[in-house]
Amino acid sequence: MQKKYIGSILVLTFLGVCFAGYLTLTKLITNTCALNETCPYFLGYPACWYGLGLFSIMFVTALLTYLNKTSLSKARLIIGVVSLIGILFAGNFIVPEMKPLFAGSAKYALGLPSCAYGFIFYVIIFGLVLRKPRIETI
């Protein structure tokens, strides 16, 4: 059951790495933001770069746990703290990015700004970390 538990977190963090990686690579290669969106910046760098870093930390932690290289309790702590940072970080960008959407002056390729999807992933991952895994009995 613990493999299934950490496996679900592993999949979600991998998807987060893929999404943030796509946004980051698009910015690096084309010098424009993906999905025809505005590109929020933090400390002079695109927010997606930080998202890629946060999702990568969680993915590597989940992978090491899945491969029994680190304990589940340690992984839950690391992933929980990083996902909480991600919630606060992405949440900070959602309000300014959503204002044009509510005003009817912005249309996003995926319906919502990319930071909103990062925020949703961080919330789901944080929720899974808070949920205690069931111990498998034979």
Could you describe the 3D structure shown?
Strands 1-2 form a two-stranded antiparallel ribbon. The protein contains 4 helices and 2 strands, in the order αββααα. It has helices spanning 2-30, 47-66, 72-103, 114-130; strands spanning 41-42, 45-46. It has one domain. The protein is mostly helical and 138 residues long. The chain is 71% helix and 3% strand. The chain is elongated, with a radius of gyration of 16 Å.
The main β sheet shows up as: 2 strands, antiparallel
The coarse silhouette is: elongated
Low-confidence stretches: none
**Could you state the order of secondary-structure elements as H and E?**
HEEHHH
Q: How many domains is the backbone divided into?
A: 1
Treating each run of at least 4 consecutive H or I residues as one helix, how many helices? Answer: 4
Beta-strand residue fraction: under 5%
Average per-residue pLDDT, rounded, comes to: 88
Tell me the radius of gyration: 16 Å
> In order across it, which strands form the biggest sheet?
1-2
Strand element count: 2
Helix content: over 70%
Structural class: mainly alpha
CA(first)-CA(last) distance = 11 Å
What's the layout of helices and strands?
Blueprint: H1 2-30, E1 41-42, E2 45-46, H2 47-66, H3 72-103, H4 114-130
Antiparallel strand pairs: 1-2
Helix pairs in contact: 1-2, 1-4, 2-3, 3-4
